[in-house]
Amino acid sequence: MRDRDVRTWSVMIDGLAVNGHAKKALNLFSAMQRTGVNPDSVTFTAVLRACAHAGFVEQGLRIMKEMSEVYLVSPTVEHYGCIVDLLGRAGRLEEVLVLIKKIPTVHLDVVLWGSLLVACRVHKNIIMGEIAAKKMLELDPCNAGTLVFLSNIYASLGDWTRVRQVRDLMKDRGIIKPPGSSLIEVEGILHEFLSGDRRHCLINEIYFMLDDIVVKLTERESTLCCVYFQYS
């Protein structure tokens, strides 16, 4: 393709970024700049996403700075979200908190604090996790996911007292965690399955198939065990 506009470049960069080819995405971004095409807000979202997925922290921070200072592109919640994700993955949680406090109120939402909360669970930082959860509840007081996630952080550290406190808080506020669900598309039809749900019109056939799979796996496991003991 000879004539590439900013939209074309952005789509290609984002395609590489979301499929795990961060270096190629950044190389393409450099090539775009050399051609004289100025990146826009969408382009920078794709580039920052690539940096976040690959852990290119310093490069991502530099690009974020260039975006506003060189290209005069105002940061949006998507850009801030990428930087929060970038720093969170690297365990630089204090920097995330400082960044979020500097973000204009108009861009602050549950998602940004949620990204910090996820990072807190990964890096087992209770203090920062409590701050993030508190801010999320201020924005959305009835968000069951926030309290469940905070409870999971406590559980991962074996702090069962705090787990019970969070569960009691949910009960007092009348907050009920919605059942987990999964979606699958078969021949153009979207099917949703809820945890413990038996309302699907083909539920009997589905469980028959699952039972058949379990039987075959059990037989296979038995065969493998026999082979193992035979040759061990």
Please describe what this structure looks like.
- The protein is mostly helical.
- It folds into three domains: 74 residues, no CATH class; 73 residues, Serine Threonine Protein Phosphatase 5, Tetratricopeptide repeat (Alpha Horseshoe), CATH 1.25.40; 54 residues, no CATH class.
- The chain is built from eleven helices and two strands; from the N terminus they run ααααααααααββα.
- Strands 1-2 form a two-stranded antiparallel sheet.
- A hairpin with a 2-residue loop joins strand 1 and strand 2.
- The termini are far apart.
- The C terminus is likely disordered.
- It comes from Zostera marina (Eelgrass).
- One of its GO terms (biological process) is RNA modification.
- InterPro entries: E_motif, PPR_At4g14850-like_plant, PPR_rpt, TPR-like_helical_dom_sf.
- This is Pentatricopeptide repeat-containing protein.
Order of helices and strands: HHHHHHHHHHEEH
Question: What's the pLDDT, averaged over the residues?
Answer: 85
Give me the side-by-side strand order of the main sheet.
1-2
The share of residues in extended strands comes to 5-15%
Which shape, going by the Cα principal axes? globular
Q: Helical element count? A: 11
Rg on CA atoms, Å? 24 Å
Low-pLDDT sequence parts: 227-232
Distance between the termini: 59 Å
Number of beta strands: 2
Q: How many domain units?
A: 3
Biggest β-sheet strands, sense, barrel: 2 strands, antiparallel
Structural class: mainly alpha
Amount of helix: 55-70%
Keywords: Repeat
InterPro entries: E_motif, PPR_At4g14850-like_plant, PPR_rpt, TPR-like_helical_dom_sf
Pfam families: E_motif, PPR, PPR_2
Protein name: Pentatricopeptide repeat-containing protein
